[in-house]
Amino acid sequence: LQLPLDAGERAQFEGIDVLGSQVREYAFAERVPHHQNDPDTSEHFALVGREWKYFHRPGGRDQLFQIARDPFETRDLSEAQPEIAKAMRAE
Length: 91
Description:
Layout: H1 7-11, E1 27-31, E2 44-48, E3 52-56, E4 63-66, H2 82-90
Antiparallel strand pairs: 1-2, 2-3, 3-4
């Protein structure tokens, strides 16, 4: 599109070839409520890997789930695994 973007902005549009050999360690997701009828009015972010999912909620409580063993995310491990939570938050 030839948009005037700096390197940080341009990196947001970079993807990976799904048929290639490059693999990303994590996927990033962002949730911003869009609808007035949405009961969850909080903005939050998630970092998801093969084993762990970390939720960051600005102004709220962050959570860490071991999705490989707890796919329904019923047990928050942020206090039991503070180093993993800290590393994922930094990422």
